[in-house]
Design brief:
homodimer; 146 residues; mainly alpha; two-stranded antiparallel sheet; 6 helices; 3% strand; elongated; DNA-binding
Chain lengths: 146, 146
DNA sequence: CCTTGACCTTCCCATGATTGGAAGCCCTAT
DNA sequence: ATAGGGCTTCCAATCATGGGAAGGTCAAGG
């Protein structure tokens, strides 16, 4: 199976498959005589594993740990569970930060007439010196595009 | 005021102040005879504005719009409100995605014994082919570090 | 046999916000 | 005068991903 088919079958783009191989997340694929990467169904399964883990918000580093556990037949399920719950904790933290932002923004927007006049408590708050409603932590759970 | 003091007073690091200036988010600062950037209290206020907006998860592009409105004395508060509510919408979308992830992970972890034995429904799910609980969208509201 | 188009290869670049570091200049206090 | 800290610019790295160029390969059809 070539990389394109493996990509389609796993849901991981060919670009990303090469990247994962390069960074050591997945082992180097075999090569055809012409130098094309070849994939077995087992490797496609591993790629699907990675994809699914990414969909659940795991970092690539975390996925490496998960893959190691996956391969380790003498693993303890406790280790897997710990990783999953730690992920939950991280997600919850981010969610809380964003909910704080939402609360602040909605409070400010609620006080804003939203008409043709320039006066706006949103801008007033951003200027500072006014009352803070839900001070968000400086870690910033931003809104990154990616 | 030098850049270091402006950084301390605004909560924006000197590095970021230079970056914001370079990318045009904020106007170029004045310079002392020796070439040091100098900041007035008005400029520090603008930096605080930027910092606060970042804390609320706004993109730099969005902050540029907010700053433009801030400076525009004939602005309509409706425009500001629209930006704020659009930001709320974006945050809510991310929150929903992450909540889906949390639900899935908790469901999987709940079925995992978490003991010394290797059997684990979390890994089984990641392998694929098993029942999906809360299929997350492929846009990925990851867990990015920044 | 040769061409065409789809696929593959490697390599480089860009994203967004931020941090780190190096090399060199400036200012203040001792 | 010298030490230290702060300032300058420039360059690089982060993380996961996509875009694209330049060139090799494969299968099908003329």
């Amino acid at each position: 199976m070539n990389i394109g088919e493996a990509a389609k079958a796993s849901g991981v783009s060919a670009k990303m498959i090469r990247y994962y191989e390069q960074t050591g997340l997945i082992p180097e694929a075999g090569r055809s005589a012409a130098g094309y990467r070849t994939y077995t169904t087992t490797e496609v399964q591993m790629l699907r594993f990675v994809r699914r883990a990414r969909d659940l918000g795991f970092t690539v580093d975390r996925i490496a740990e998960l893959l190691a556990l996956w391969r380790d037949r003498s693993r303890h399920s406790a280790d897997v569970k710990r990783l999953a719950l730690s992920q939950v904790e991280g997600l919850r933290r981010k969610i809380r930060e964003m909910e704080d932002m939402v609360a602040t923004l909605e409070h400010l927007a609620h006080g804003c007439n939203g008409d043709h006049r320039p006066d706006c408590p949103i801008l007033a708050d951003l200027e500072g010196e006014t009352s803070r409603v839900a001070q968000t932590s400086p870690t910033g759970a931003g809104f990154g595009r990616h």
